[in-house]
Design a protein that fits this description.
The structure is a single chain. A hairpin with a 2-residue loop joins strand 1 and strand 2. 22% of the residues are buried. This protein has two domains: 117 residues, Alpha Horseshoe (Serine Threonine Protein Phosphatase 5, Tetratricopeptide repeat); 80 residues. Helix 4 runs antiparallel to helix 5. By secondary structure, the chain is mainly α. 81% of the residues lie in helices and 2% in strands. A two-stranded antiparallel sheet has the order 1-2. It starts with a helix and ends with a helix.
Length: 232
């Protein structure tokens, strides 16, 4: 469909007149006028599409946002778009894609993209922070077994306490003190198995993130040195 220059101008002006925090309004206008927006000049089209994509993220429509991120990543590569509004556009889109995957609880996919971001931009502390979070939320099998052991110890402690109250004082008074020691040990074991397992998992995630970032920084420096040498 052909749009006259005046129609394209009016369309772009109307889109830009919508408040930036009116996410549903931006989404509705873009989707109702998508054919016209596609007819805009490239910079205007990209401006509208980036705003629409951000609105999808802010409104919580992460499924659609992922689709648009993939499309825009391909577009900025094909059109060789480097920076937009003072930001590295590829970096921004890639991070937002990882954030949508994180919100959709696809933590493994999110972590994979965050690793790619850190390889390219090893100084990105926010990417490192979210990588650590994504790793924390990927619970290994041994952690579930530790949680199960904690629950088992707690249930055993309940049984022992019930016996202390209902049976031991009346039928086996000599066992009262050993039973009290037993239930204290079981409660301690329950708390220890859970807290130690959670702390170890958190430490492993932090160490993995730290080591990955350090390796990315080293690789980046080595790559920069090789690039300098190749130009001499």
């Amino acid at each position: 469909m052909y749009f006259l220059p005046a129609e394209r101008l009016r369309l772009y002006r109307n889109f830009k007149s919508i408040e930036v925090n009116d996410f549903h309004g931006l989404i509705r206008f873009y989707e109702q006028n998508e054919d016209g927006i596609r007819a805009l000049d490239f910079d205007e089209y990209l401006d509208c599409t980036l705003t629409y994509t951000s609105a999808l993220f802010e409104s919580g429509d992460h499924g659609k946002h992922l689709v648009m991120c993939d499309y825009l990543l391909e577009l900025v590569i094909m059109q060789n778009v480097g920076h937009w509004d003072g930001e590295d556009l590829y970096h921004r889109l890639l991070f937002k894609k990882s954030a949508s995957l994180y919100h959709l609880q696809e933590f493994e996919k999110s972590a994979r993209i965050l690793r790619e971001i850190i390889k390219i931009y090893p100084q990105d502390q926010l990417a490192a922070l979210y990588l650590n979070k994504a790793l924390l939320l990927q619970k290994p099998g041994w952690l579930f077994r530790a949680r199960a052991a904690s629950v088992a110890f707690a249930l055993m402690a309940v049984v022992v306490i019930a016996l202390e109250i209902l049976a031991v004082p009346k039928f086996f008074p000599g066992l009262l003190q050993p039973m009290q020691i037993s239930h204290n040990l079981l409660i301690a074991s329950s708390l220890a198995s859970l807290s130690i397992a959670e702390a170890w998992h958190a430490l492993r995630c932090r160490l993995k993130t730290r080591d990955f970032v350090r390796q990315a920084v080293m690789n980046k420096r080595q790559g920069d040195k090789n690039e300098v040498v190749s130009h001499i």
